[in-house]
Description:
mainly alpha
Amino acid sequence: GCPGATRAADRGPISADPPAVSMANRGPSYGLSREVQQKIDRQYDPELEQVLVRWILAQCGGDVAQPAPGRDGFQQWLKDGTVLCRLINSLHPRGQGPVAKIQASAMAFKQMEQISQFLQAAERYGIAATDIFQTVDLWEGE
């Protein structure tokens, strides 16, 4: 899923809310952790997802493939950091993007490194630190 993808009117598309539950162990959730996950699922806004997908695709100008629909598809699309890095670079004049090397990788640490590069560039671009998610939240689908 996309962290913080609640309603655009409620907050921006990027959230710094700390994860309520670690999803590293993806077994069935019970009790409080299940209630928390259900609340997170209820807050997910598929309409906002579509708005964001259309904007990212338009902004990146064909450099990016379309994601599978739904929360998991959206999270998988962003998880390796390449789409996010292309997006932040597209907001700068050609050749002046803050992320010099964008490279798809199956290695977790490389993916997290690219997400981190995007987040640092987003902060320099002017996104408030309080509106920025944590790398691990996106990577784990929080």
